[in-house]
Amino acid sequence: MARPPTVTFLGGVREIGGNKILVEDGPERVLFDFGPSFSPVYDDFFVNFLQPRSTSPVKDLLEFDLIPRVPGLYSREALAGSDLPYEPPTVHAVFLTHAHYDHAGYLQYIDPEIPVHVGADTRRLLEAIEGSGGRGYGEHPWELHRARTAVKLGNLDVLPMPVDHSIPGAYGYLVRTSAGTVAYTGDFRQHGPRARLTHDFLAEAGKDGPAAFITEGTRVGPDPRKEFTEQSVRTEVDRVLERTGDLALGTCYPRDVDRLATLYAAARAAGRSFVVSLKTAFLLSSVAGQPGFPPVPVPGRDPGLLVYERPKQRYYNWEKPFLDAAVDAEYVRAHGRELLLMLEMAHFPELIDLRPPHGTPYIYSMSEPFSEEDVEAEVLQNWLRHFDLRYHPLHASGHCSAGELTAIAERLGPATTYPIHTNYPEQFRPRGLRVRLPEKATPYPVADR
Length: 449
Hints:
There is one protein chain. The protein has helices at residues 40-43, 57-63, 101-104, 120-131, 195-208, 230-242, 257-269, 278-287, 329-335, 350-354, 375-386, 402-412; strands spanning 6-11, 20-25, 28-32, 93-95, 116-119, 142-145, 151-153, 156-162, 171-177, 180-184, 212-216, 248-252, 273-276, 305-307, 339-342, 361-365, 390-393, 416-420, 443-445. The chain is α/β, with parallel strands linked by helices. It folds into two domains: 6-222 and 398-445, Ribonuclease Z/Hydroxyacylglutathione hydrolase-like (Metallo-beta-lactamase, Chain A); 230-393, Rossmann fold. It has a seven-stranded mixed β-sheet. The protein has a six-stranded mixed β-sheet with strand order 7-8-9-10-11-18. A six-stranded parallel β-sheet has the order 14-13-15-12-16-17. The model is unreliable at 369-373 (pLDDT under 50).
């Protein structure tokens, strides 16, 4: 007798990030997302420059149960030295929801014969990240799926549906098995500029009456975040710039294309130029005009967009096209009142040369830390105090609030709901619905009624 279709959570269980979801139906075994966790367990062993060895990455991660022990998944090279013997692929495909590191960062370890299915916009972002010195994703047959067009894999029909998130090219999936539909949200929100995409995904999921609803729950539990929309971020940034007579500073995720477009528009409205890093300049140039991306400014083409050059001993080839017109710390000191300078936290030593005036506003347009003990948050505050910068946390989350998630689940009415990508799954309790708190590596029948 054939085994009924199952879903197995290989990651994302009681942790932020690290989603690894295996759906099996007959001989078909399909994986959704494959990235590292932001769990404190990872930081117990690896932090900053202490990382798994490049010559034996899977061996080192397996030692601490930081990557799943799945035969027929990893490349022969990645398994070097480990006690998990190499086997030809038994996982038939990987589907990626989006290009964030916690969903895509372990693709480099997967067998190069296993195809990876992504949207064309997702693939474009991955290429831009790799092209600017970011993490590699390995060699794979890259299969570009079309939104709202099902991919047939034996017993499985996988329908990719675009959703709104804090990065373009984000997808949810409806996985239609022989025992019912598995609706997997990936990371998503309803308050961003592409909220309509999320609504369309949820409407399509509702038509299927999902047997299993797998939802991210990043904001379930204690949540200090103020509920900003992208427009309210713009409004608040406008207010900060109106009150500022000199330099303004900020930080945002360098791949949050929507936020970059918002901050650029705010800077231009305030009569300022928007100054970005070499890496951001490369990203904007890579995605401008591509399908699935919002309109973005391009260095060398659009007015009021400047590129900041940090002193380095060596510049990469991808940086060199932007250097001739780039500005430096001396320029910023001389023209501060005309600028909104974006400074990634890793580049904070530039403040020593910039010498911003006391009371300079600093717009922090990123997520709050996941815990009050976040070391990076403490270091950030040390720098702000040292240079007497005024802190303005202005961020529209990439995730639905707990209340929104509850309402969505109640509206869909699935047979079983699985909250993942959260530290507090037990706090997700929609009325009248069966919620199962998944255990890692335990197969659950799709028709688990």
